[in-house]
Design brief:
Largest sheet: 7 strands, mixed
Shape: globular
Helix content: 10-25%
Number of strands: 21
Order of helices and strands: HEEEEHHEEHEEEEHEHEHEEEEEEEEE
C-alpha cells in the first residue's frame, strides 16, 4: 500500500509560523487626538475660574441724565474631579515558565499580558470619550431567557462596544444592577437587535433598563464612574462641572438637530453650525469627528459634485478628509465609537485631559508584578487617573440626525 498523508500523519510535524496575528481592532482615534492636550493635577480636584458675564453698567444717556447703575464682571468656578480607570492581569507561575522562550510559545506571557491590558484599557477609555451623562451603552426593550432585545434604534456603534466576553450590568439609572451584574456577552445580533448572555438576567427587563460596563455605573442618576464624554460636554443643556447653562447661557454648546429625521451631511449644514459657534464664542471649531456612515454620506456628495477633498494627517497616524466651510477648512475623521447619525465639531485646544497619572502600573512597593497570596501566580494593575474637560463649552458644536450611508 502506498504511503499517504493519512498513513504518514503520525510522522509529520506541524510548522508553526512566527508571531501572533492580531485579529482585534485596537484603534483609538479620538483618544490619540485628546491625549496630547493633558494637564497634570494634584490635590482634591482641578478648579478653573471662568469669565461668564459682562458688566451691565453701560449705556447711552441724555445730557444730564442719570448714569448707568454700576455693574461688575461675572465669574464662575469650574470644578473637575478625576475619574479612575483600571486594568488588571493575573498570570500563573507554570504559564510564565512554559512561555519563557520561542521554543515554547509564540509570545512571552508577561509581555503579552502587560502590553495587551494597556491596549484593552485604552480601547475602553476611547469608548468613554463619547459617553452620554450616565455612561450607558444601550437601551433595553425586553428579555427572553438569556436574550435581551434592545431598542429598535440602537446605534451600530453600541454593538461594537458589546464585544463577546464583555462584562455587562443591566438595570435602571439609579439601580444599575437590578437585572444582573457582570453578565458575560456570548453573542450580539445587529438585525434583531439583541444581546445574548452566557447566563440569563432576571425577568422584568423593560424600556427603562440600560446596559452598562460592569461596575462602572454609580447609583446616582445622570452620574457614572467613567469619563465625562462628548455627548455630555458638547450639549446645549445640563450642568457640567458645577456650572449650569440656565444660569450662565454662555456655558452651552451649539446643537443642531432635526427632530429625529435624518438629513444629508452637507457643506451648508456644517457651515451653519460653524457660523453659530463663531457667533457665540468668537472662535471656530478645529476638528470634526463622526461615524463612518456619516463620513461616507459626506464623501458621496463630493463625488457627485466632482469635487475631491484634500486630506490631512492627524496624531496617531490617522488621516482625515477636510470640510470647507466659508474661510474654515476642518479635518473630518471617523471613530468606531462615535454614535451613529452624530457629528461633533470640536475646538481641540479647548478640550483638556486633566490627569494625576499617565498609563502606569502600580509599583509603589517597588514591583509591577506581585505574588498572589496562597497561589502560584502573579498579578499587576494598570491605572489612569484622569478626566476629560473643556474650559469653553461654547466653542464646540454637535449635529444630530445625519444620514448614515
Amino acid at each position: 500500500m502506498a504511503l499517504t498523508l493519512t498513513t504518514a500523519d503520525s510522522a509529520l510535524k506541524e510548522d508553526y509560523q512566527p508571531s501572533i496575528r492580531e485579529q482585534i481592532n485596537n484603534e483609538v482615534m479620538i483618544l490619540s487626538q485628546i491625549e496630547s492636550r493633558s494637564t497634570d493635577v494634584e490635590g482634591r480636584r482641578a478648579v478653573l475660574s471662568l469669565h461668564v458675564t459682562r458688566n451691565s453698567g453701560v449705556g447711552a444717556r441724555a445730557e444730564g441724565g442719570t448714569l448707568p447703575t454700576a455693574g461688575a464682571q461675572g465669574y464662575a468656578e469650574e470644578r473637575v474631579s478625576l475619574k479612575y480607570n483600571y486594568g488588571r492581569i493575573q498570570i500563573n507561575g507554570p504559564v510564565i515558565r512554559a512561555m519563557k522562550s520561542d521554543s515554547g510559545s509564540f509570545t512571552r506571557a508577561i509581555e503579552s499580558e502587560t502590553q495587551g491590558i494597556v491596549r484593552d484599557l485604552k480601547r475602553d477609555v476611547n469608548r468613554q470619550v463619547f459617553n452620554n451623562d450616565n455612561g450607558s451603552i444601550a437601551t433595553c426593550a425586553s428579555v427572553s431567557g438569556a436574550v435581551v432585545t434592545l431598542n429598535a434604534d440602537t446605534p451600530t456603534s453600541a454593538f461594537r462596544q458589546l464585544e463577546v466576553g464583555s462584562l455587562i450590568d443591566i438595570g435602571l439609572e439609579d439601580s444599575p444592577t437590578d437585572h444582573g451584574t457582570a453578565l458575560v456577552v456570548s453573542s450580539v445580533n445587529t438585525s434583531t437587535p439583541s444581546v445574548t448572555f452566557t447566563t440569563s438576567p432576571t425577568a422584568g427587563i423593560g424600556t427603562s433598563d440600560l446596559l452598562f460596563r460592569s461596575g462602572a455605573k454609580t447609583t446616582t442618576a445622570n452620574a457614572t464612574s467613567e469619563l465625562t464624554g462628548l455627548q455630555a460636554i458638547v450639549n446645549s443643556s445640563g450642568t457640567l462641572f458645577n456650572i449650569n447653562p440656565t444660569t450662565y447661557p454662555v456655558w452651552a454648546s451649539t446643537v443642531n438637530s432635526n427632530s429625529g429625521t435624518d438629513r444629508a451631511a452637507t457643506d451648508n449644514l456644517f457651515e451653519s453650525v460653524i457660523d453659530n459657534i463663531w457667533l457665540e464664542s468668537g472662535e471656530a471649531p478645529t476638528f470634526i469627528v463622526t461615524s463612518p456612515g456619516v463620513r461616507r454620506n459626506y464623501a458621496s456628495q463630493l463625488k457627485a459634485q466632482k469635487r475631491f477633498a484634500d486630506t490631512v494627517d492627524l496624531k496617531g497616524g490617522f488621516r482625515a478628509l477636510t470640510v470647507d466651510a466659508g474661510n474654515t477648512s476642518l479635518p473630518i475623521a471617523v471613530d468606531r465609537d462615535n454614535p451613529d447619525t452624530k457629528a461633533f465639531l470640536l475646538n481641540l485646544p479647548c478640550l483638556t485631559q486633566h490627569q494625576s497619572s499617565d498609563w502606569e502600573f502600580m509599583d509603589e512597593d517597588g514591583a509591577v508584578l506581585n505574588r498572589v497570596s496562597g497561589v502560584d501566580a502573579y498579578e499587576a494593575t494598570l491605572f489612569k487617573y484622569h478626566e476629560l474637560t473643556t474650559d469653553r463649552r461654547n466653542v464646540h458644536g454637535r449635529i444630530d440626525d445625519l444620514i448614515e450611508s
